[in-house]
């Protein structure tokens, strides 16, 4: 084994405070690990080579923190950041834990709840900006319904838009310099969640007041829950210029939200995501939104964090090999991959309509996908 | 039993020629029914009370039809339409059956295949317009991949856009008066299909040359395959002003594309879709893209068609009852459904940021969703 | 509306204390309802017409209850039972909540944990028997794994068998008169759970020491999570003579364990389950293992319970109509449903091998499933 | 690259004639490859290092083959086998393609269809035995239903049992020396298929007349469709002593039956299956029931076959490394994997009931699953 897979800050690995800090509570079981002090988290992750942390408002400031306590907590936390050089590139708002949000937050039927949610978000954006964040993630986990009659989806989208517009207005008014990244999810904890996939959220952005301020935070697990492959989702997000942040983890299709260690399930999908990020020159964060298995003690937590980053780096090295592998490049040519970049109608529609093709010859072509895919399999398995 | 559920043309029920004409071939079995003559289909559906039919180019004109044969076939088909008063409100292109499309159509890696696909689509649009169609559906069933390395998704989206733009150019140049409706599907026959959901297709439209000319043809089965509920998908489509056509059928989550008789699975989902269409004043087609079970003989085919329409009408009647039911309306009030239409910030952001709420009181509210949902269940079960 | 759907004790409706008592905690949210006193639960459910309640050991006796407290609690609880006439036909063991079970219970790798689990189960069976239970349910929610290398499945099945055998031994030794009902589940809270479906559990029973003492408690939601239809699962369970208990609720395929109100999703599936129970003369419990939506206050909890029972009774009435409906009975004949009861080889194999059939004629038969299924749809929708 | 992954007959790799011979037809597309001559298949697979082929009756003998043609075809086929040393270890019956089976085969409602199916199976078993097969696979793809009312599941299981019993009787009467292997599948082509999982089929076997003659042919894709992990399914099959044959391929959860090249999806799952087969000393076939992508020409077909076998051998080598890897072995000890083999109650139930445990200490244990799983990930990725 080599340490060529040792993470370093320039790799831009970040973790939510709530990820390594996850106490192991699940729908059928109590917490199994004591809470982590955010300061310790910063220190340990810095030692492991991470670039920074992200946080929900209440990960750092327990709900109800007084202004004085806020200052004390922030001071201590900043000190840890300064000492370690760790950053906080992203913050987000907890709009799901407290009972007030049980019927929704930005799209709660009760206007008072919606106002509470917008206000809490503005305060969380203030906090994020104060800590140097450039992105504010919005995950609308409670924006949904089980009893369909109870929610008018079109009105809900009106209110969702209004809320995001208000948040943008706050950013502009206060000069917070933030961009907003919507995080789609199909279900859980609600039976159906609004903006269930990357696609729905991308479409929604087009109708906002300041669409340029809003992009996406796609999550591996959330797309995968619906059986939608993650790398095409990220590719479409990039195509629209809307990749503002990304959540890496692992998940099996059609199951509860698992948030496993990156690469622990879906190795091939993980590879293609890393390939896409590396090929596209993504210079943002490689953010892990995952949590350790409930079987782990404190030491297992750090093994979990170490594993997320190592697997990313191992896959990134394979991306380089992919480019350098003569057989793979030859197979890409047989599959005519590059020809997809040629315009279909370089000389206009008229010529397309006049073209005659030899359909039998085109139909008889083999594309060599089995060979190409096998080469990728062997690359992944480490024998290329 | 009453015949208050007898379909009439003003209900706007349409069927694809390929639906009742489906011969019962499946991945593991041969055809079980002989092909239906499109003229017979028109006549039988007219008798059953349908408004019209839709078609793929090759449903009517077998591939390779000569110009002379084309005229003969069209004349005979038009005659049947005229005789019965049936319409052809929608046409589409078969870009999936022939081996030339095995690697894709609009997004095939080989430019010659792409040109063939664009040309075939333009000819299919000509055919549709000739028959009076107002919508041309585009289902990109072969636009996808199994071996991810073989397809650059961002380049594929460039080509997809180029192809749709070329088709719009053709519509404009020829004055065909058509609108295009994209039909999303997550997978099958490809491992992953581009524009896998309503959301992805809505987002894609925003980047087209003539976005106003392009909308959606969402399909019950296709969204449901991914576990995404259909009525919120249609609601978001309406919200964006992009419902151009709709495909009604039935499907279980996470299974092969079943295209069952409308209402035969997912009764509750079917109800909410009908409710949405009726509540929103949708004046387009109620189009069935389904096929009879393989167990059926010819008589079963027409039972299938009859059933699709009857179930729609039964559910539409329940939509009226829903509005008139005092208990349901009372439960909607308890759930504060209408209050979602009130702006969150009627007096602006500043007031929102200044508002104090009684969080405990808001958290303690009950929304009565169990009661409301039970009332809807009983409405569906016919005891309200 | 009529009260012909009013539940009465002879309908054998039971609820887990943990179902109406569910405080609304979920993976992303805190509790929203205060705990229900089991005595109040008994009283309220009695008023609503239920037959009894079921319980986990720790639903009644908080973990760590001293022998004295145990007596006090039991006395008070029995008093409520006596007063209301309510029964406790089933009890079960909580082998999932406490951190000690994080790696498993009967199949934990650590033998000390396994012994703890067996002992806790024996004590829970003692409690159940004391309260008059006839069935002890075993749900092995923690018997699984995320990191496959960490569990030898064959050894785990050895230990699972050993544990169930030990529990049977205890029942026999103490004369508890209980039967054990295994409850399968595919995943959640573990990534993969042992005995994931009705089938796997049925097979497992065949290898036990006292297979006659052990049967199943199939659950609607658990089978449905995997996309397996519930009524065929229950039918196979009945076929093996192993339906000892049943858990009714609602669930969408491929999602987190939703445990919705019976009939709120999957109306058709719910009908076929009720039909099977009624047709087979099932004289056991109609047990609801579901919980109210998190949007509900206390009143919503009782609406939830009322709804579960009402929907069962509405569907049961439809079962009677199904039998009495002339068109449905005619359609069953066309589909040759009864002929499946005729032996295939009434005169032995030799005659089968010698039979000539008119394959074309047999292939040409129509079975009228579209018609039959539409009739059932209309029966469900209340217009037959 | 090395040729240490070159398949040899002793590796026991077999392919169905229908796998490499798949012509690329799918629900939305026509055939894209011409039929392969079975003799050529035998020759090419022999060159690639396979051990043998398997076949449906009609893969070799087109339906309606006369006795004379039968002899000619068989003579030529045997000649190819003799020349190459290839074997036919398994045969099966096509009970799904022809329209007569549209309503079922062994469980068709019409007794004449059932007799036809039993007779066809007996003839296929004769053929298999003649070619030296030791296992006859039964996949009941048509044994299911879409319209639930049309099938009495308990009666269907009676008939299923009767059919399998009749087949066993035929084997015994004719001294064919065959064992039967049931192949479960949850759905497709039917909405719901009987015996949907490994578990259901294992349970069913227990009720047969000659249970020892019947075991399973579990398939990777079929279990995975339901989201059930394949290696625990195979492990339970082995635990019951019922692994008679196995179908290897690849599949994503919750999608149509994909039958991809082994290892092309689900690398981790594929590894654990190979590990289980190798660890358990499985001396049967490594049978591939998969087909080449539709994008492939003839050359791609053989790349497909080569890839299935190479990936197996690459993974088998990793199984050896797993055993030899010091860190992995250490992590297994930390996870106490071996301790699951210790009896829970070595000295009997009484001692278990009397044991006191230190619950807090047991709950505090960490099992190191993140570390262990990361080591396996790195083994798979080839950096251990």
Summarize the structure.
Chain A has 384 residues and is of the alpha/beta class. Chain A is built from 15 helices and ten strands. At the C-D interface, helix 5, helix 6, helix 7, helix 9 and helix 12 of C face helix 5, helix 6, helix 7, helix 9 and helix 12 of D.
Give the CA-CA distance, first to last residue of chain A.
Answer: 17 Å
- Oligomeric nature of the chains: homotetramer
Largest interface: C-D, 102 and 102 residues
Unreliable residue stretches of chain A = none
Q: Helical percent range of chain A?
A: 40-55%
Structure classification of chain A: alpha/beta
- Give the SSE order of chain A as H and E letters: EHHEHHEHEEHEEHEHHEHEHHHHH
Could you walk me through the main structural features you see in this protein, from its secondary elements to its overall organization?
Four copies of one chain form a homotetramer. Helix content of chain A is 46%, strand content 10%. Chain A is α/β, with parallel strands linked by helices and 384 residues long. In chain A, the strands form two sheets. An eight-stranded parallel sheet of chain A has the order 8-6-4-3-2-1-10-9. A two-stranded antiparallel ribbon of chain A has the order 5-7. In chain A, α5 (111-130) links the parallel β3 (87-92) and β4 (135-139). Chain A is globular and about 75 Å long. The model of chain A has no long low-confidence stretch (mean pLDDT 97). Chains in contact: A-B, A-C, A-D, B-C, B-D, C-D.
